[in-house]
Amino acid sequence: MSRILIVEDEADIASVLQDYLRHAGHETEHVADGHSALARMLEAPPDLSLLDIMLPGLDGLSVLRQARVHTRHPIIMLTARIEEVDRLLGLELGADDYVCKPFSPREVVARVKAVLRRVQTEEAADKATASLQLDDVHWRASLNGTALNLTRREFRLLQAMSRHPGRIFSRARLLELAYEDDADVSERAVDSHVKNLRRKLSSAAPSHDWIRSVYGVGFAFEAPLE
Ligand code: CA
Q1: Which residue(s) pair with 51 in the sheet?
Q2: How many CA atoms lie within 13 A of 181 on its CB side?
Q3: What are phi and psi of 52, to 5 degrees?
Q4: Ligand 1 centroid to residue 55 C-alpha, Å
Q5: Fold (topology level) of 136-221
Q6: pTM of the full predicted structure?
Q7: What is the distance in A from the centroid of ligand 1 to the CA of 82?
């Protein structure tokens, strides 16, 4: 059982989410404005928060930004605007996942379950990524003792993604990471870097699929479970 904080000013939506999450075996708490949400997250961080963006008082993005200074607990954003997704998933804001409105409560419960599972296996993931060595000074990476011979762009991508196993990085964010200020590159370029990176990781440790594609959104580094 996990403790879920629901931050949603629309009473009907909040109530449906509460019902479904309780039915799935979670304990829930509901607040309807940004200031209360931030206060709760800082006083007693829940196991996971569902955070609406359009809120009275402090909006969801400000809550997320301020909460992230103090707490790493997983936060799933509820958004009515698909165009915000890139920013949400960016390292700057650090949401763990998002659900677009209108959503089915079942979908939200499934997302909650997936994110909680991800967090609960993070310890195991940390151990597994210990076999991945990144040398920031010389831009060298090795996996299980095998040198990966990465390009600098591949190195930057792997470095960012492996720091947050399971987190989805959008193509736009990966492009920023790989090219820094050189903006004149298509997001398609990211696909080919990821493809090469995936090939190099697999050749050093073939039994695991290291980089997961999230259709239409981007990629996530997946540490092996165990
Ligand atoms: Ca709202």
Answers
A1: 7, 77
A2: 0
A3: -70, 150
A4: 5
A5: Arc Repressor Mutant, subunit A (1.10.10)
A6: 0.59
A7: 15
How many CA atoms does the CB half-sphere of 57 hold within 13 Å? 14
User: For 125-177, how does the pLDDT look when each residue is reduced to its tens digit (9 = 90+)?
Assistant: 666 666 888 888 888 899 888 899 999 899 999 999 988 888 889 988 898 88
**How many angstroms separate the alpha carbon of residue 72 from the centre of ligand 1?**
23
Residue 1, Cβ neighbours under 10 Å: how many?
9
Any idea which fold 3-127 has?
A: Rossmann fold (3.40.50)
Residue 76 near residue 98, CB atoms below 8 Å: yes
DSSP secondary-structure letter at 122? H
**Length of the chain (residues):** 226
CATH 3.40.50.2300 range(s) for the chain read 3-127
Cα(10) to centroid(ligand 1), Å: 6
Q: How far is the CA of 54 from the centre of ligand 1 (A)?
A: 4
CATH 1.10.10.10 occupies which residues in the chain?
A: 136-221
